């Protein structure tokens, strides 16, 4: 959630800072970089959210004691495969 909120803040700041350039039909470097940083945070938030659901199994497998490092790992662990059965 923190990553998605950070992305939202970066997009908001980019929109506010870049509005002057938008009205003149120009894209300035500052708002462009802020937008790219927002997309990075958006991507990280999507990756972590997907890992929580598809690897950790939150609201699916009930592995509530899974350590966060294993929850975001892209490969499943034997405990997860056991819980699926």
What's the layout of helices and strands?
Layout: H1 2-23, H2 29-54, H3 68-71, H4 78-84
Residue-averaged pLDDT:
80
Largest sheet: none
Global Rg: 18 Å
- Secondary structure tally: strands: 0
Helix content: 55-70%
Order of secondary-structure elements? HHHH
Model regions low in confidence, pLDDT < 50 over at least 5 residues: none
How much β-strand is present in the residues? under 5%
* N- to C-terminal distance: 30 Å
Number of helical elements: 4
Shape label: rod-shaped
Structural class: mainly alpha
Oligomerization state of this entry? Answer: single chain
Walk me through what this model shows.
- The structure is a single chain.
- With 85 residues, this protein is mostly helical.
- It has helices at 2-23, 29-54, 68-71, 78-84.
- The model has no long low-confidence stretch (mean pLDDT 80).
- Helix 1 runs antiparallel to helix 2 (29-54).
- The longest helix has 26 residues, at 29-54.
What structural keywords apply?
single chain, about 80 residues, mainly alpha, 4 helices, about 0% strand
In short:
With 85 residues, the protein is an all-alpha fold. It contains 4 helices and no strands.
């Amino acid at each position: 959630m923190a990553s998605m909120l950070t992305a939202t803040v970066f997009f908001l700041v980019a929109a506010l800072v870049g509005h002057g350039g938008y009205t003149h039909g120009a894209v300035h470097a500052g708002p462009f970089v802020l937008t790219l940083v927002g997309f990075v945070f958006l991507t990280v938030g999507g990756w972590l959210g997907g890992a929580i659901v598809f690897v950790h199994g939150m609201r699916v497998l009930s592995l509530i004691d899974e350590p966060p490092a294993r929850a975001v790992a892209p490969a499943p662990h034997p405990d997860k495969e056991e819980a699926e059965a």
